[in-house]
Q: What sequence folds into this?
């Protein structure tokens, strides 16, 4: 049997109430040359029963004891046959044109290792929200610098070349979160990324999210956000230009954590993270201005459509100025 163009990986653990929708969104792609590998990471619900009911030759199921997301992804990679690799989390959905948009791009742009689009948020019942993940690189044309600054990708709206992933090495099984950012930082050491400005997936926001405010792992997820950067900056072979970004990179992580605590309503912890951001950056005035923008002005502008357009325009202008300066 010839190898498919794409291997689609769906890792799952106790998500039977969403898994059938995720699988259906893959099997209904209007680009049909793919295999689908579902990794059941030791589910204790009726996941196995559901998977036995799906009769499609493109589907393969890998069952393993509960070992975590990175181990699931590594298991699927070891069994995959496609020249391109895509991932969909088992509570999320693809739009029908996900693969037909990204596959032709990699086919015609051999200089690009990873292409990605955006995903739009939806709530537990599938109603769409305004939030989006996946955006243009902050330093267009310099993927590593952009990813050090912040993770601009969206892992469920992304397609990567197999050789790019193999070259970067396996997913880090010691990480319980941010395993994708860690991978993309390693991939970007030798491969370019490209952003397609199109919504290609929906990611579900629900109480069962590991990163949700009500998740018992919420604090652990936030605290582990620095680990991909810790690994990156521990590498003695890191280019000097990237090493110089260390203050800005950690500032961005602490600001991200502050925004999460602010959104959760815990201003005490948010302010502690803001203080860490100022200390990490060493630029008291500049970082304070960035905090004011992110924590106060943007939320105020986001309350109206004109305000959202203004915020987007200012953000883009700031990005262009920084890119031109650096």
A:
């Amino acid at each position: 049997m010839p190898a498919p163009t794409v291997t689609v990986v769906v890792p799952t653990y106790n998500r039977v109430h969403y898994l059938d929708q995720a699988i259906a969104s893959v099997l209904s792609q209007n680009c049909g040359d793919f295999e689908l590998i579902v990794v059941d990471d030791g589910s204790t619900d009726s996941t196995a029963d559901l998977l036995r009911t799906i009769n499609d030759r493109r589907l393969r199921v890998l069952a393993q004891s509960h070992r975590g997301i990175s181990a699931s992804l590594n298991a699927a990679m070891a069994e995959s046959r496609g020249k391109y690799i895509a991932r969909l989390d088992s509570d999320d959905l693809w739009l029908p044109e996900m693969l037909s948009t990204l596959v032709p791009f990699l086919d015609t742009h051999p200089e690009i290792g990873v292409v990605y689009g955006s995903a739009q948020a939806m709530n537990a019942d599938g109603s769409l929200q305004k939030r989006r993940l996946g955006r243009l690189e902050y330093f267009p044309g310099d993927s590593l610098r952009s990813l050090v600054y912040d993770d601009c990708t969206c892992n469920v709206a992304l397609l990567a070349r197999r050789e790019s992933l193999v070259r970067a090495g396996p997913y880090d099984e010691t990480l319980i979160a941010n395993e994708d950012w860690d991978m993309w930082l390693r991939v970007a050491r030798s491969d370019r990324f490209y952003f397609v400005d199109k919504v290609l997936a929906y990611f579900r926001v629900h109480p069962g999210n590991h990163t949700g405010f009500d998740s018992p792992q919420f604090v652990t997820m936030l605290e582990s956000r620095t680990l991909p950067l810790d690994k990156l900056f521990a590498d003695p072979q890191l280019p000097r230009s990237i090493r110089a970004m260390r203050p800005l990179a950690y500032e961005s992580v602490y600001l991200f954590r502050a925004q999460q605590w602010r959104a959760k309503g815990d201003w005490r912890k948010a302010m502690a993270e803001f203080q860490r951001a100022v200390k990490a950056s060493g630029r008291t005035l500049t970082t304070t201005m960035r905090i004011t923008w992110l924590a106060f002005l943007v939320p105020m502008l986001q309350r109206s459509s004109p305000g959202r357009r203004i915020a987007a325009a200012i953000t883009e202008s700031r990005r262009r100025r920084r890119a031109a300066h650096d």
User: Anything to note?
Assistant: The longest strand covers residues 192-204.
